[in-house]
Amino acid sequence: MFAVPLPWDFQPLASDRIRLDLLRDDDLDDLYAMQSDPDVCRYLLYEARTREQVTEVLARDRAATRLAERGDFVQPAIRDVDGRFLGTMYFELHSIDDRTAEIGWILPPASRGRGYAGEAAALLLELAFGELGLHRVFAELDPRNGASVRVCERLGMRHEGHFIEHMWLKGEWTDTGHYAILEREWCARPVSPRR
């Protein structure tokens, strides 16, 4: 059986327009502005956070730098070429034996509509299916989040399921959309989603 080359210690990833690197203490103001915005949090699993909560989350996520076993994650910052904070990515190992991971993204309103989420996700998918040797990467999202659905589609992710009233969240039953892409599908893509 093919073994995933773990552990993997986070190393910055870059394209022409963006860079993924670890969160830093000086990201607190930007992270707080994003995670305290009710519109940003509308389709996330948590309510808008207080500054104290974001401080705790930043400490936790800043320390997540290694992928070694199931449940390990990294949550790097997306930055432009000048180092300006544009949002965050999420990448979690779900199964070592099945070589599967989950991917996600959060961007504040000022960073949306410019292709940053897709470009950042492409960097992580290239890592996943290249250096890490994974077989499958999936994303779960609220289907009402049209922008995230479009990112999945542009990445070539397949819509695998729509779970109706899948969870009770924020005072209502909400659906969950499931998208995924396989290594062979990623490698067969004719065009990269990078700009």
UniProtKB/TrEMBL annotation:
Q: Which domain of life is it from?
A: Bacteria
Q: Which part of the chain is the N-acetyltransferase domain?
A: 18-188
Known PROSITE patterns for this protein?
A: GNAT
Q: Which InterPro entries match?
A: Acyl_CoA_acyltransferase, GNAT_dom, Ribosomal_N-acetyltransferase
Q: Name one Pfam family in it.
A: Acetyltransf_3
Family annotation (SUPFAM superfamilies):
Acyl-CoA N-acyltransferases (Nat)
Database matches in PANTHER family: RIBOSOMAL-PROTEIN-SERINE ACETYLTRANSFERASE
What's the name of the protein? Answer: GNAT family protein
